[in-house]
Amino acid sequence: MDIWSKLMNEHHLIQQFLDVLEAAKVQMEMEKKPQGEFFRQALEFARLFADKYHHFKEEYLLFSLLAMKKKGEIDGQIEALRYSHEQGRNLINQIANALNNYKNGQEVATITILENLASYIAILKKHLHQEDHVFFLLAAKEILPEEQAELQNAFQKEEMKRGEKFLENMENLLRELESILI
To answer: How confident is the model at residue 107 (pLDDT cuts 50, 70, 90)?
Structure first.
């Protein structure tokens, strides 16, 4: 599988995650509060898969290579994508900070989680669309086959660092999140 297909497959998994978060948001809006365990596991998925795994590969491998190749021509686009990643991290941290109070039934924590959840979903949906339909197309034209092979090797090293069952575990975690909401 080429690097673009791999990244887009990861985007598909993140989109599924966002759909689960959207379902949780709707439940909260209808005064049906998901269990605290749901949010604990959602934070785990967001941090381990979306951020430390997927966004790491984009920011430190793909974006760095493109920035070097384009010598400043697309720095604005790269910075905007990195900023979206950073916004996502901050929103996830806000949810994490409110979680104990949410579990204790504090209404302000519920509102905090709901607001940050809505922002996280909106930002990441827009971000995924931009990468899939604009940025990856640009990147695919710029990165030579031998550079793609180097990126593929770097991606595989990242996968190996996390263990051979990492992706399977993340898919299982996503299914578990879905089942908690039912």
So the answer is: very high
Chain position carrying tokens 């993140």: 14
Domain containing residue 36: CATH number: 1.20.120.520
For the record, the structure tokens of 103 come out as 């579990």
Rounded Cα gap, residues 72 and 66, in angstroms = 9
pLDDT tens per residue across span 123-149 = 999 999 999 999 999 899 999 999 999
Q: How many domains does the chain have?
A: 1
Cβ(161)–Cβ(88) under 8 Å?
A: no
Distances (CA, A) of 52 to 24, 33, 56, 89, 174: 23, 28, 5, 10, 16
